[in-house]
Structure formats: structure tokens, C-alpha cells
Amino acid sequence: MARPPMWARDLLAQVYADVGRDDVPTLGWQERANYGARITGRTWSEENRIHISVGNRTPRKDQHYILLHEIAHALLPSGEHHSERFWTLAFMLYFRYGADVQHAYAWETKYRKAAGRGYGNACRLLGKDGK
Ligand SMILES: [Zn+2]
User: Fold this and answer.
1) How much of the chain exceeds pLDDT 90, in percent?
2) Strand (E) positions, the chain?
3) Which end of the chain is more exposed for a tag (fewer CB within 10 A), N or C?
4) Rounded CA gap, 80 and 1, in Å?
5) How far apart are CA 76 and CA 81, in angstroms?
6) Tell me, what's the pLDDT at 1?
7) How does pLDDT run across 35-65, given as a tens digit for each residue?
8) What's the pLDDT score for residue 79?
9) Which domains are delineated in the chain?
10) Is 80 exceeded by the pLDDT of residue 74?
11) Are 41 and 50 in contact, with CB atoms under 8 Å apart?
12) If you average pLDDT over every residue of the chain, what do you get?
């Protein structure tokens, strides 16, 4: 198992420090030769564990927001899944931690319609202009 990149470990530690939690999840990171530019993330809440699989051509902006997506899962109780509350938190993290929010919005809303409501909530809560 590869060691996660420094930026990823730092980001995870920073989010947990900022929300005042010391139960930082274990982060697994694997580069897969057959992934190309793709990326997948998964979180096991009960085990407090996140795993990211990346290709050798996965753009950093994708790695960044996918890690934040998994951190949002880890921060919420297991069983929350892709609820509106989840999407609201995810987009708040994207804004707060410098993800390419419009890029994430385009992908997340393609993936799940409810992501758009979370984006709108996050914009309102943070005083950002939405779409
Ligand atoms: Zn998810």
C-alpha cells in the first residue's frame, strides 16, 4: 500500500483539526496502473477508514475534491450516505479547502441530483454566489 501524498495527509489532518475532532481516519492510498485519469474513493465509517485509488494521470483537482468528498462521509454518522446534509457538508468543504468547486459541481451533480441542493445550501451558509 502506497503512502498517501503529503498534501492529502495534511488536508485530512487540517479538516479534523478545524472541526475539533481528534478521531482522524486512517487514509489508504493506492495508485492503480489501469486507472489512467480515473479515481475512486470509499469510506468505511465504522472502521474510520478512507481509501483512495488513483491512476497515474488523475488530475490533482480530482484527487483534491474526491478526498474532501470522502472526508465528508467520514465526518458524518455511518448510514448518512449521500443525503442532502452530506452534500451540504461536502460543498462547504470544497469551498473552505480550495477545491475547484465548479468542477466538483459538474461531476457531483452528474453523479447525484441531490448534490445540487447541497451546493445551494453551502452557498447560502457561506454567503457565496451560487449558480
Ligand atoms: Zn460518496
Assistant:
1) 86
2) 26-31, 39-44, 49-54
3) N
4) 28
5) 9
6) 61
7) 999 999 999 999 999 999 999 999 999 999 9
8) 87
9) 6-126 (3.30.2010)
10) yes
11) yes
12) 94
Closest CA to 100 of 126, 62, 52, 71: 62
Do residues 111 and 79 make contact, with C-beta atoms less than 8 angstroms apart? Answer: no
Say if residues 29 and 5 touch (Cβ distance below 8 Å).
Answer: yes
1 Cα to the center of ligand 1, angstroms = 22
Quote the ligand 1 centre to 88 CA distance (angstroms): 12
Cα 42 to averaged position of ligand 1 atoms, centre (Å):
7
pTM of structure: 0.94
39 CA → ligand 1 middle, Å:
13
Instruction: Answer whether residue 75 shows pLDDT above 90.
Output: yes
Residue 70 CA, ligand 1 centroid: distance in Å: 6
- Is residue 124 a contact partner of residue 117, using CB atoms and an 8 Å limit? no
